[in-house]
Design brief:
The protein has 131 residues and is an all-alpha fold. It is built from 5 helices and no strands. Helix 1 crosses helix 2 and helix 3 crosses helix 5.
């Protein structure tokens, strides 16, 4: 973002991540702010990325389909880690509200809090994102 390197992934991780960016842009109906890969780099528009991060987190929080939630969790955690490294303030309030509604309505004794786990996973990823 600008002159700041947020992440220097391997070629395989970069290819997989950029493919998933396209998928989730379509899911949330917004551009991610993540530019095309050029010379092993891509620029991030911080304003568009911040909007995308909040929309993605809200989408993920409302997705209670077990398979979709599981498939998206790793990408969402990675995006949240990038947002943290970029010092973008994430709106966790919508996710926590969705979680609260879900837990109140849950009849499943195994229903669990996921926002805290997602925060922990994204923070752990920031330590693995070499720059």
């Amino acid at each position: 973002m600008g002159d700041q390197t947020l992440w220097n992934p391997s070629d395989g991780a970069s290819r997989l991540f950029m493919s998933q960016v396209s998928v989730y842009q379509a899911e949330v109906g917004l551009p991610s702010g993540i530019g095309p890969m050029e010379a092993d780099e891509c620029q991030i528009d911080p304003i568009a990325f911040a909007v995308f991060v909040d929309a993605l987190l809200a989408w993920h929080s409302e997705t209670r389909h077990a398979v979709m939630a599981t498939l998206s969790e790793g990408f969402v955690a990675t995006v949240l880690a990038l947002a943290e490294k970029a010092k973008i303030e994430v709106n966790w309030q919508a996710a926590e509200s969705a979680e609260s509604r879900c837990l109140k309505a849950a009849t499943d004794p195994h229903a669990k809090e996921w926002t805290a786990a997602l925060r922990q996973k994204s923070r752990a990823l920031t330590r693995h994102m070499a720059t």
